[in-house]
User: What shape does this take?
Amino acid sequence: QLQLVESGGGLVQPGGSLLLSCAASGFALDAYYIAWFRQAPGKEREGVASLIAVGGRTNYANSVKGRFTISRDDAENTFYLQMNSLKHEDTAVYYCAADRVAKLLLLIYDCWGQGTQVTVSP
Assistant: This one.
């Protein structure tokens, strides 16, 4: 019954922006820690951003710090990744994740979305 569904991916030019959304169902998101991960072709999955709670502590990969922002709207059971100043190296499948225990950017979250493709290209 627990489910996360990503949306908002697509093709964007370098320097552009995308807003990724992750809709949760089957559980109350306000009881969960959240995060975003990504996996580029030929690469292993890596952590992008995590957030403990609204107004809480955030963690960002150094490669996205200052460009990406993670946020959550628990009333809508949805969380987001705002991606600005996108680069070619941001091209990847992006996954949202949630867990009742803080996992930061470790690849051990209990609940995962199926991923949404982000392609940064002219």
Q: What stands out?
A: The chain has a mean pLDDT of 94. DSSP finds no helices and eleven strands in the chain. The longest strand covers residues 18-25.
